[in-house]
Amino acid sequence: MENQVLTPHVYWAQRHRELYLRVELSDVQNPAISITENVLHFKAQGHGAKGDNVYEFHLEFLDLVKPELVYKLTQRQVNITVQKKVSQWWERLTKQEKRPLFLAPDFDRWLDESDAEMELRAKEEERLNKLRIESQGSPETLASLKKGYLFMYNLVQFLGFSWIFVNMTVRFLILGKESFYDTFHTVADMMYFCQMLAVVEAINAAIGVTKSPVIPSLFQLLGRNFILFIVFGTMEEMQNKAVVFFVFYIWSTAEILRYPFYMLSCIDMDWKVLTWLRYTMWIPLYPLGCLAEAVSVIQSIPIFNETGRFSFTLPYPVKIKVRFSFFLQVYLIILFLGLYINFRHLYKQRRRRFGQKKKKIH
């Protein structure tokens, strides 16, 4: 006996951009679903209210829809999604004012217009937030990029200062004291590179990339660069002095302990020996470095006075000659002020790092 053609129960709901239809048919086979001339055509074999039969219906939409549709078969029903051509709210689904008997609202998905507008705004905000996150990068991605950037910066600085330290050590073992007097010409280019790159460190502290306080970082950067670029770099007479060896050697010794510690911190590693060296070796190295820098400034004062470099005369009516040596003497005061600031900062760091263990012992 030929199967009887019947109409299934259809439930509908809408949003501003979409229509949702739920056809109450289970075990659907061979569905033929299409939209032609703004009419939805449905025909399928399935089990509905009248048993296993061929079910069919046609719906002419109230307004224009896109001819492409999406449907999904489940064990109990057929879900159809139709896109409206214009995003707007419809007063009803079909062009005919009288609702077909087989059609009813889908209260599981039903929203009134105001609720649908709120849902639409929420989806739009979610979409914009997603785009914003994609353009800016997720917090996890930014954290990984930050760690990678800091790791590479510390690695480059470690390699640079290691080269200086090894070069000076080997030359001293081979040449002895003779190596003191040509240190500048041997390693100055690498020291220039490392100290110019150290500007990044102060910038990182200033913009919050690292948690280092700005003032100590800036004091160390400006102090070292003043010695390197002004006292040593502009005066050839200073470049052949033994004090250059001691300044460069102390700087490089401090940095080959500091930068590996920061590198391991970027990948959440803690090597206890390196940590102890990082928070302990500054105690002798910082005062020695400050003393070596002070000696270099004192030795440069008569040379700057003799050459008159960077000295100037104040304009009329004062006409007083200001020697650069005056600024060098002021710098000596600032140098020891910087030593105090850095010493205090590093002491606090060491106490935070090791203080708790000491309290437990007592």
TrEMBL record:
| Subcellular location per the Swiss-Prot or TrEMBL entry | Endoplasmic reticulum membrane
CS domain boundaries: 5-94
Biochemical pathway: Lipid metabolism; fatty acid biosynthesis
Tell me how this protein sits in the membrane. Answer: Multi-pass membrane protein
Q: Which residues cross the membrane?
A: 150-170, 190-210, 217-235, 241-261, 282-304, 324-343
**GO MF term (any one):** enzyme binding
Q: What is the catalytic activity of this protein?
A: (3R)-hydroxyhexadecanoyl-CoA = (2E)-hexadecenoyl-CoA + H2O; a very-long-chain (3R)-3-hydroxyacyl-CoA = a very-long-chain (2E)-enoyl-CoA + H2O
Lineage, top-rank taxon, reads Eukaryota
Endpoints of the signal sequence: none
- What's its EC? 4.2.1.134
Similarity comment: family membership: Belongs to the very long-chain fatty acids dehydratase HACD family.
Chain's role:
Catalyzes the third of the four reactions of the long-chain fatty acids elongation cycle. This endoplasmic reticulum-bound enzymatic process, allows the addition of two carbons to the chain of long- and very long-chain fatty acids/VLCFAs per cycle. This enzyme catalyzes the dehydration of the 3-hydroxyacyl-CoA intermediate into trans-2,3-enoyl-CoA, within each cycle of fatty acid elongation. Thereby, it participates to the production of VLCFAs of different chain lengths that are involved in multiple biological processes as precursors of membrane lipids and lipid mediators.
Q: What is this protein called?
A: Very-long-chain (3R)-3-hydroxyacyl-CoA dehydratase
Q: Which organism is it from?
A: Physeter macrocephalus
Q: Report the gene name.
A: HACD3
